[in-house]
Amino acid sequence: MILAIIAGLLIDHFGWPSVFLMNLPACALALLLGLRLLPQSQPSERRRFDWIGLALLTLASVAVVEATSTLQRQGLANATTLGFAGLAVANLLFFVAHARRTPSPIISLKPFTERTFAMGSLVTFSYGFGLYASAYLVPVFLQHAMQMSATSAGVALLPSGLVLAVTIPLAGRLADRLSPMRVTLAGPALFGLSFVYFGLAADHITYSQIVDATIVGRVGLGLMLPALTIATLRYLEPERLGPASVVVSYARQLGGVMGVAAGAVFVAWRETAYASEAGGLFMAYADRCSRRPNSEPPCRTKFEPGLDAVRRTSVCG
Predict the structure, then answer these.
(1) CA dihedral 202, 208, 212, 217 (to 10 degrees)
(2) Structure confidence by residue, pLDDT tens digits, 161-201
(3) Is the Cβ–Cβ distance between 72 and 269 less than 8 Å?
């Protein structure tokens, strides 16, 4: 999460394209450390790389994201949206057929015969969806609704990032002593609670409350990851752990991509829907005032001075 601050500084001073350059030093360092520290693989039977499977999965993944992205611009019944959705389904079906008859597919389907692994992979997808969607939505809310700079938005995410880093190893210890299922279930409960609070309080929330809510959410995500990994892989044979780990990683990353795409579409739709309302930008994130009786005046946004200069309250009447 320290990178969130660096990203904010880059955006504020050099524009949003510069944020993509931030990954280059980390990639170079990981490459050098990997070459030096990772053990050499044992000699094994050479297998042809599954280029066909890679192409099918890539097309399916891109088509899913494009179908989601075009929802806001084109609508559900539009030919473009339906075309991308159909392309995603077709490529996924082709990949399943290909993986069944290929000796060494890029993602093996054999681990899915274990129900625990199949359900764990689905939860892992949801984990990635929630993690990356929240990492997108909170900064967007801080910058669009609360009119903060990208750097300030990154600073707001720093405490929750540090808490996440501390929670994950502690959650691993809990998963070793307690039922992984119970630890995993506690995670989404806390994560969901943080966003319920966001939804109820977004029209009058303060900076410190945002920090507190994101910390609660990151504790939930931190509880999920180690226990979820253990629960997903624990019943697999050792020779299946490698291919299964690839599936888990892919599910988490695909969920993250879908989470960001769906979050962007949803926020754009809500902002457009409430554009003509007083205080509509806040109502796009919290629908509290729109549920007031029709006889009462609409809400308006009030800017308060002082330390909470970033605070905006929604005033009705």
Answers:
(1) 50
(2) 888 888 988 888 887 787 777 787 888 889 888 888 877 77
(3) yes
